[in-house]
Amino acid sequence: MPVGKRIYLKRQMPDPEVVKAYRELPASNVADCMERNSAMNPRIKLMSSPKQEMSGPAFTVHTRAGDNLAIYAALRYAHEGDVVVINDEGDTTRSLIGEVMMSYLRDQKKIAGIVVDGPIRDIDNLQNWDLPIYATSTTPGGPYKEGPGELNVPIACGNINVNPGDIILGDPDGVICIPRQDAAEILPRAQEFHKQDDAKAVAFSQGKVDLSWVDESLKEKGFDIINDYYGN
């Protein structure tokens, strides 16, 4: 088997109802229920104007830096509802995908979104699209089409490990990865956390909150509270 030039057609997939339920939750609340270590690096930013959060199973793409032949293969093999997640090996000099390819993914494949750990182009039009599009930056410089590359293998995206079939959740804050095998267990905790977080925001807004724990924590950690001006 030619390692580096493999296209896997099968993935272990999450429960579609679980995927749908995550779409109703902020990525931050879900990340907090995963010990705050599931968020992709903030270099990956929302580039479009979707009307709802992105949630879908990861269709992973590992490209050679600055090359998009494997992404063209994803145009062939991605499925409706997938989130195409692309590892560009850290390259920041060449766009991997633009309006032409994304039009196919949006209109023909009906994917749920795309996450590129690298640049894209044609942002003048893509920024107005309803399709969730995440990338690091933009550049007019185009890619090569030589390969190698792989589909549906484990990758890293935004410094986070992503396996095929993991749930990718994105909103204006950014993108997180929810391991497929843990997603059903995390969901009810995240739903309850979301309810509590909403109530907490109301309580803070109305001043109905006890912050005495802050003083206790500062004292415990050795902070000095000085009733004087700096420099005196």
From TrEMBL:
Reactions catalysed, as given in the entry: 4-hydroxy-4-methyl-2-oxoglutarate = 2 pyruvate; oxaloacetate + H(+) = pyruvate + CO2
EC number(s) on file: 4.1.1.112, 4.1.3.17
Subunit details: Homotrimer.
Main function: Catalyzes the aldol cleavage of 4-hydroxy-4-methyl-2-oxoglutarate (HMG) into 2 molecules of pyruvate. Also contains a secondary oxaloacetate (OAA) decarboxylase activity due to the common pyruvate enolate transition state formed following C-C bond cleavage in the retro-aldol and decarboxylation reactions.
Entry-linked Pfam families: RraA-like
Enzyme class: lyase
Record-stated family: Belongs to the class II aldolase/RraA-like family.
Cofactor annotation: a divalent metal cation
UniProt cross-references to SUPFAM superfamilies, sorted A to Z: RraA-like
Highest taxon above the source species: Bacteria
Protein name (record): Putative 4-hydroxy-4-methyl-2-oxoglutarate aldolase
